[in-house]
């Protein structure tokens, strides 16, 4: 049975960044559900926008994005829609439009050969015994077992590591649903949609490489019905759908309290969405995946006596920032507050066609 310094479960942005940073410094094993290349197998449903905080992480590491990761077009504003009040606003944003699956594969490709990576693999069981973490996984067509001094859960919303460490911990979850359509809008756009009848979270759309993606986060019980109902409602806001090219679903976490940020224990650590490190106001997680990976790298290299405590302390600033996103989300999803903010016109950039209210099949959409 092979023994490693660190076993990383999951190679999304968090796990891939950590594996790359620990290469050559520790003996690292990494397991990932995605295949090494191509579009077959597991893919992460995601709108695919790289926020400024994530961009800063790449600046810090001296990394530039390859052309085949970047999607077209690049959009500099978000059309915010309050479906309840029939309001629209345009706010400036500095996102980079990316192909999320290509981005994830590129992140994995940066991991040096010193790291033992198993692609298209499945972690089946973990447990701690005699001061070591034991991991059983299936890869290359057969079941294998290793031990590790440290275990890292970078395995997203349905994290096996988080469930093992915190079996009684409950965190709010939604089903994220996306559909892809052939783009038919005269001008591509990115949108953020609020409709409390559909969800107490939010929905979105993005134009990407000739496709129009419409999605949202909905209650687990009847998410599909709510998604379809919102699609019908959005035709009044000039959203064009047609026949779906493909549909995607996944679970997404929604931290709503300080206790939802869990860092790990007993030489096991959680990073990225597995730790609850995802923005409650936008569901953006790549930034916090990269930041938490860097924080854990720094902590592991110092090898403090109480290393879990050191990691919790080091992530406090990040957790405070994410708690601020929880407070922001409460304002955005509260109809009265959201309506007041949008009507105030703060930071709104009017478009030339916004000079007059626009007639639609559902009545008048109020634009100020």
TrEMBL record:
Transmembrane segments: none annotated. InterPro entries: FAD-bd (IPR002938), FAD/NAD-bd_sf (IPR036188), Geranylgeranyl_reductase (IPR050407). Residues 135-165 form the FAD-binding domain. GO terms for molecular function: FAD binding. Signal peptide: none annotated. Belongs to the CbrA family. This is Protein CbrA. It comes from Citrobacter farmeri.
């Amino acid at each position: 049975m092979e023994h490693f310094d660190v076993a990383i479960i999951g190679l999304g942005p968090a796990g891939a960044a950590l594996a790359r940073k620990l290469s050559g410094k520790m003996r690292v094993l990494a397991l990932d559900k995605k295949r090494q290349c191509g579009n077959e197998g597991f893919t992460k449903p995601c709108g695919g926008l790289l926020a400024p905080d994530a961009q800063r992480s790449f600046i810090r590491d001296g990394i530039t994005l390859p052309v085949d990761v970047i999607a077209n077009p690049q959009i500099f504003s978000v059309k915010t829609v309050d479906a309840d009040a029939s309001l629209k606003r345009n706010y400036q944003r500095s996102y980079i439009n990316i192909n999320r699956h290509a981005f994830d594969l590129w992140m994995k490709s940066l991991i040096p050969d010193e790291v033992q990576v198993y692609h298209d693999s499945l972690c089946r069981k973990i447990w701690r015994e005699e001061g070591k973490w034991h991991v059983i996984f299936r890869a290359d067509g057969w079941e294998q077992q290793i031990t590790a001094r440290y275990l890292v859960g970078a395995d997203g919303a349905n994290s096996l590591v988080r469930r093992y460490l915190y079996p009684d911990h409950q965190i709010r979850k939604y089903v994220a649903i996306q559909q892809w359509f052939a783009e038919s809008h005269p001008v591509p756009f990115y949108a953020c949609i609020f409709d409390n009848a559909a969800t107490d979270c939010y929905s979105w759309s993005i134009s990407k490489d000739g496709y129009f993606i419409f999605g949202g986060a909905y209650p687990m019980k009847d998410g599909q019905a709510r998604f379809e109902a919102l699609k019908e409602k959005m035709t009044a806001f000039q959203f064009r759908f047609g026949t779906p090219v493909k549909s995607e679903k996944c679970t997404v976490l929604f931290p709503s309290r300080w206790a939802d940020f869990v860092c790990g224990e007993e030489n096991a650590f959680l990073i990225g969405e597995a730790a609850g490190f995802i923005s409650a106001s936008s569901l953006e997680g790549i930034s916090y995946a990269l930041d938490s990976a860097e924080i854990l790298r720094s902590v592991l290299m110092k090898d403090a006596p109480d290393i879990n405590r050191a990691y919790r302390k080091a992530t406090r600033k990040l957790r405070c920032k994410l708690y601020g996103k929880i407070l922001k989300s409460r304002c955005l999803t509260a109809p009265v507050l959201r309506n007041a903010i949008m009507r105030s016109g703060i930071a709104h950039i009017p478009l030339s066609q916004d000079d007059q209210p626009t007639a639609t099949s559902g009545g008048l959409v109020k634009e100020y």
